Amino acid sequence: MLIYLGCSAVFAFAMAIALAWAGAPPAAVAHAAFALGAMPLIFAAMGHFVPVLTRSGGAEARIHRLPLVMQLAGAAVVGVLAGVLPGAVLHGAVTVGLAAAGIFLAWLLNRGRATLGKPHPGLAWYGAALGCLILALLAILVGLLWPAGYGMLRLAHLHLNTLGFIGLTAIGTLHVLMPTVLGQPDPQVANRLRRQLPWALAGVGLTALAGGLPWLTPVGVVLIGGVVGQTLAGWLRTYGWTRLRGDGAALSLLGAGFGLLVVIVAGGVHGLGGMAGRLAVVGFFALFLLPLVAGALSQLLPVWRFPGPATPARAAMRRRLVRFGGLRTGFFLAGGALLFGGITAGVALLAAGVLLFAGVLIHSLVARP
Q1: What is the 3-state secondary structure (H, E, C) of 286-331?
Q2: How far apart are CA 189 and CA 47, in angstroms?
Q3: N or C, which terminus of the chain has less Cβ within 10 Å?
Q4: Inter-residue contact 125 to 197 (CB < 8 Å)
Q5: Which keywords describe this protein according to UniProt (predicted)?
């Protein structure tokens, strides 16, 4: 299941790029990347990490099925926005997403309460991210039923999904994943996670409200941007630039972190009227989501395929996946920069990066251990 969802996320990203190139509606393109690709993968990754953070057994079968439910709901949303399915399907897809997110959040909270001692602070980030997703889905559902408020609620939906659900999940996971990637513990991880979460939540909340109250934009940018900047500075202090750039997965994750910081600043410029909102969404996909998923899958897919103690087969698969990590991260960041500048040729660089990762992914799955 985890391997399937990882591969399908890469396919969804390629689909989003193809839809953009073909001139599909921007909402359909964004939901192909986020709802069809990123969201199911995030649910699956949470299902993997929550037992680790709570020192408990693996997730139950019903929890493992929820990412597929979210993927089906995401496919329905893309179908509606692309004009293939009737609009009434959208209400059902949002309702299904709300139910699945609620079930997952209840499971997470139950695991946290059953933990011997205190759960890892990363669990609170996952709970906060799921709370943002539920609010985002509620916002768009209310907007569909209340056309007069749709514009403002759509912006809240966008920010709660991107910076809230995806952003909080990513930051919380990266604190744990980067030390694993580099094989070196970071003694400040737990303290940073506890200290940063209130500020990150406040930043997400203010950016969600900024659609109706634009003067909140700079405060939200400073809060959430400060959390990301502090995380990046912590990595550089702990590991150093040479160590970070020497591993393809670590470099991808570092690139995603810097990309997110750029996107947050760009989002602030947009909130003050200095940039089109579409460019900020494109930047989030190109500068953050693409290098994030490529780096995370490079580390996690070998563990998912060869669970248990470390083996030579797992190490060999990881070596294949991290190959060209620096090159594809360069493609993603350069492509995103071009698109920020209004140069559509940046899409070709994004496609090259996705195809490059898809190639090493397929090779790592079919190669003999």
Answers
A1: HHHHHHHHHHHHHHHHHHHHCCCCCCHHHHHHHHHHHCCHHHHHHH
A2: 21
A3: C
A4: yes
A5: Membrane, Signal, Transmembrane, Transmembrane helix
Q: Which residues contact 53 (CB under 8 A, 6 or more apart)?
A: 119, 120, 122, 123, 126, 176
Q: In sequence order, what are the residues at sequence separation of 6 or more whose Cβ sits closer than 8 angstroms to the Cβ of residue 110?
A: none
Q: Output the six-digit token pair for 114.
A: 């059953």
Neighbours of 191 (CB within 10 A): 11
Whether the model pTM is above 0.85: yes
* Amino acid residing at 350: L
C-beta neighbour count of 81 within 10 angstroms: 22
The residues, any chain, with a CB within 8 Å of residue 333's CB and separated by 6 or more, are 255, 258, 259, 286, 287, 291
Give the tokens for residue 207.
Answer: 């950016």
58 vs 76: CA distance, rounded Å: 29
Distance CA 48, CA 97 (A): 20
Distance, CA of 128 to CA of 52 (rounded, Å) = 18
- The tokens describing 50, both together, are 């929550």
| Structure-token pair, residue 29 | 């393109």
The answer to whether residues 197 and 128 touch, using CB atoms and an 8 Å cutoff, is yes
Residue range 169-191, pLDDT digits in tens: 999 999 989 998 998 888 888 88
| Range list of H helices, the chain | 2-21, 26-33, 39-53, 61-81, 88-114, 122-145, 150-159, 168-182, 189-209, 217-245, 248-271, 277-283, 290-305, 312-322, 325-340, 346-366
Nearest to 213 by CA among 260, 156, 261, 167: 156
195 to 14, 133, 175, 201, 246: CA distances (angstroms): 37, 22, 13, 11, 29
For 223-265, how does the pLDDT look when each residue is reduced to its tens digit (9 = 90+)? 999 999 999 998 999 899 889 988 899 999 999 999 999 989 8
